[in-house]
Amino acid sequence: MGRPGGGGAGELCRLEQPFSAGNPAFRGSAAVDGGRQRGYTLGLNWHPNDLVRLLLAYNHVDYEKANGVVVKGLALGAPVGAKLDAISLRVQVSY
């Protein structure tokens, strides 16, 4: 990958992941009770040589739904959900 003594190769990655739990495929499932989830990932990969790869990623997930019977103490239809932000760093060595 490249010439000896070079800087290696880099990649910039972006991923968008929309998901609707109100999809008819999930109706009747006790584990999925409607709502929408949207996730974004932004990544930077660096390959300094043929055997090593470093991966850095930022992930943001936003989940929103109306309360059904999941959260006790909240009125039906009250907005509930969660947000998640994560940064990960991974080193991969091939031999």
Order the strands across the largest sheet as they lie in space.
1-2-3-4
Q: What is the strand tally?
A: 4
* Largest sheet properties: 4 strands, antiparallel
Structural class: mainly beta
| Percent range for β-strand residues | over 45%
Instruction: Work out the radius of gyration.
Output: 20 Å
Estimate percent helicity: under 10%
Judging from the principal axes of the Cα atoms, what is the shape? elongated
Number of helices: 0
Provide the residue-averaged pLDDT: 81
- Helix-strand topology string: EEEE
What low-confidence regions span 5 or more consecutive residues with pLDDT below 50?
A: none
Distance between the termini: 15 Å
State the main characteristics.
95 residues, mainly beta, 4-stranded antiparallel beta sheet, 4 strands, 0% helix, 57% strand
Summarize this, please?
This protein is mainly β.
Task: Explain how this protein is built.
It is a single chain. With 95 residues, the protein is mainly β. The protein contains no helices and four strands. Strands 1-2-3-4 form a four-stranded antiparallel β-sheet, with no helix packed on it. Strand 2 (36-47) and strand 3 (52-66) form a beta hairpin. The protein starts with 8 loop residues before the first strand and ends with a strand.
Question: In terms of topology, how is this protein built?
Answer:
Blueprint: E1 9-20, E2 36-47, E3 52-66, E4 79-93
Antiparallel strand pairs: 1-2, 2-3, 3-4
